[in-house]
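Quick start: what a row looks like.
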Amino acid sequence: MSLTAAASGFIVFLLSVQVIQGQYGWGVTSTITQICALQGSTVELPCTYRYPFAMRSQTTQVEKRFWFTKGRHYEPVDLKTDSDYTGRVEYLFHNDDCTLRIRDLRERDSAEYKFRFITNHGGFTGSPGVTLSVTVPDLQVQVTRSWTQGELRCHSSCNVSDNPSYVWFNNGQKMDGATSSSLRLSVEDNNSYSCAVTGYEDYRSPPVYAPKLPSLSVSPSAQIMEGSSVTLTCSSDANPAANYTWYKDGKPLNKNTQLVFSSIQSSDSGQYYCTAENELGMKTSQYKCIDVKYAPKVGLLSLTPTGEIRENSRVTLSCSSDANPAATYTWYKDGKPLNKKTPGLVFSSIQSSDSGRYYCEAENKLDAPKLQ
């Protein structure tokens, strides 16, 4: 098996197995069925072929041998006569060797290549052929983390062989001395990193970086009413994508991008924030106060002192109700409103004329239930 890496590019194997086609002494053997190579590079497709020494008492003579990608089985187009490959194709034929070399690869060279030879006893075509995929570097930076250290690895679906040299970029600037496929760094350095194959600096990977300061939004953004549907969303620009954790009053909640209240309650009021974290670091959002508004709830009416009330004693009636915003109160005696707007109704020296049935109403902008 022979491989060539031109100065301008590299060859890559995706699958390497021995494939033998043919029978009764005829056949084509290929050690490679699929090759991935970079645009502009040189690639070799190695193979060997065989045929019977003689048939019907007549020695076999090879009359023609060539590679093709176009044309039907019995009407193939020799690559050397194909205008798409002019000056770029070389046959490395020697004895039973049928290796094909293609220089200055182009993306349109991606195809299945088959070898055919013709003898005085007939022809034979190797099938399946060798599938060549030509691409520009399609790089991604894979990130792993161990405690406070992170490792970046430059990876491509078209893995470059022959231990090529790499270029690393920190915030878009080339890093001196960083030429291997991996890079170690401290987590939380707030920089972005990308890589490229040397000679292909214009084809950089997307940068990887720790999460930016998360944005926390609330929908709807207007006043939040008890029983309504409310969604909190945390988002952050990060690569790899961030994982999110929600907190209420400092205590962790769930780990979703959104925090959804299908019917929010007054007990859900509090200070909320979220964190965004990936393998390169973590950031915490600003705090968001969720203040759930609700009408006064039926509360308590209390009397002090309790028990028998004596004339000229001090008596206090107290009205209380849970509400947001805070409630204002109106007192009634025997169904008639009193000119009292405070939670407490105080009799400093109660008289017999004060006897009656009392109740109060608690009211805010949302509702006004009665407290009796």
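That is the whole record. DSSP finds no helices and 38 strands in the chain. Residues 1-22 have pLDDT under 50 and may be disordered.
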